[in-house]
Amino acid sequence: MSGTQVAFQFHNCLGEGGYGEVYLATQVTEGGIKRDVAVKVLHERYDEGSDAVKRLRDEGQVLAMLQHPAIVSVHQFCEIGGRLALVMEYIEGADVSYFCDRSRLFPPRIVMEVIREVAEALAHALTVHNPLTGRALGMIHRDIKPANVRVTVDGKVKLMDFGVARSNEIDRKAKTAMGDVLLTPGFGAPEALGFGVSGPMVDVFALGVTMFEMCTGQTFYGKTDLAFQVSLAMDSEDYNSHLEERLALIENEDLRKLCGDMLKFQHELRPEAADIADRAHAMWKKMEGDTLGKWARHTQFPDLSYDTAEFCGKLIDARGTVLGDAPPPKPPDPSPNYPGSPPSLPPEPGQFKNAHTLDLTHPPPAERVSAPMPKKPAPPAPPAPQGSNAPLIIGAAAVFAGLAMFGIGILALLAAIFLS
User: Residue 243, Cβ neighbours under 10 Å: how many?
Assistant: First the structure.
């Protein structure tokens, strides 16, 4: 590998799906800048005619046009081991699906903040202009679900996976048949399940299902199969009875009302994404509790990555060639002492109780850190001559002198007694 420019060092696999795997990697630019990225690598070998390659290219094209704080950003396409890969922003955190378990549900105020951010992202995708035509993209995600929404360790929300998103303003490479509605079972709106209708309100419905799971830890359609869900989509009375029964599981009245509006049977009665964002923000301001940022700082996020996928621990050069395994990390120096010196030990409790210490994490104000003028050092005392007996002689003389003075004092006292 000598002289070969390493472009990526792959670490753990963050997850995998039907089309590929997502890895955490360190990217090294030609200028030597390093940054952590997420790299989605397809399972299939590079074939421009395959549906997987077309969908990944579509996703990259969509993300490049959607610059929004709540939408994951994209960096570039590349080739890894003969497979197409998409290099994206690395988002450290956890999918919302992890927090849809009843043992670790979001607090109500956090639910509102997450819903607001996703709704803002959906509204942006609908209204942002195509720079080539000047027209609104009208982008619909078509796969809103807890697994595609991520909360970061610093309290941000990111909407991910635009692989099946659709817009009339973007020429998608991957085509779907007329009337073919792409959706995840359990998140389909009645008009999509019953009549194959797609549109922005399908995303709103899926966001309502996501909110229901965040509030209850249960799925909206329960354990029913797709056939039952389609039957509900064909009968508004049956659907509304099911909706009323499920909404009763949401304890917070404000959350229950907003979720119910997003899950209405008639799509024209559902609020638009921008309205949802505004309502969620207004409700959030009235609620008590931590913000998402503070909550995230005090929350233990799981590490769900693994290191058994194909490219884990591999070095990749600028041409996409797998160079081999990365060298193991160098162990840290166990001690900052010089070679041969005894290891330094931590101070005993109270050892420096009255000492003046400098807290590097909280430096004092500038006016209090000015250094005093250096003082002229006192001349060192001359060293005592080696082997000298002077100290011993002086000490003995002092003892004898003291005894003599004591004797004289006794004699003077006795003389004074007898003469009186």
Answer: 20
**Domain at 35, CATH number:** 3.30.200.20
Do 59 and 157 lie in a common domain? no
Q: How far apart are CA 337 and CA 359, in angstroms?
A: 22
* Residue 346 half-sphere exposure toward CB, CA atoms < 13 A: 3
In a domain, 347, yes or no: no
Is the pLDDT confidence value at 420 over 70? Answer: no
Strand, coil or helix: what is 22?
strand
pLDDT at residue 130 greater than cutoff 80: yes
- What token pair was written down for 352? 């420096």
The number of distinct structural domains making up the chain is 2
Alpha-carbon distance of 317 to 310, in angstroms, equals 16
Q: CA 261 from chain center: how many Å?
A: 31
Q: Same domain, yes or no, for 260 and 324?
A: no
Residues 287 and 122: their CA atoms lie apart, in Å, by 24
Q: Which two tokens stand for residue 315?
A: 């070095």
322-325/157-159 β-pairing: unpaired
Residues 45 and 20: their CA atoms lie apart, in Å, by 11
Helix, strand, coil: what percent of the chain each, to 5?
A: 35, 15, 50
11 near 36, Cβ under 8 Å?
Answer: no
* Continuous H helices in 33-72: 51-65
Q: In this structure, are 223 and 284 located in the same domain?
A: yes
Which domain covers residue 150, as residue numbers? 95-300
CA 410 to chain centre: 91
Residue 228 sits at φ, ψ, to 5 deg, of: -65, -40
Which DSSP letter does residue 237 get?
H
Under a CB-based contact definition with an 8 Å cutoff, are residues 232 and 244 in contact? no
Query: CA distances (Å), 278 to each of 44, 117, 208, 245, 274, in order?
Result: 43, 10, 15, 27, 6
Q: Is 47 left (phi over 0), alpha (psi -120 to 50) or beta?
A: beta
In this structure, are 239 and 134 located in the same domain? yes
Residue 371 confidence (pLDDT) above 70: no
How long is the chain? 420
Q: Which tokens go with 312?
A: 């884990």
Enter the tokens of residue 88: 């994206």
Are residues 250 and 136 part of one domain? yes
The tens digit of pLDDT for each residue in 14-56 reads: 998 878 999 999 999 888 899 999 999 998 776 777 888 888 8
Of the candidates 288, 272, 196, the residue with the CA atom closest to the CA atom of residue 233 = 196
> What is the identity of the amino acid at 2?
S
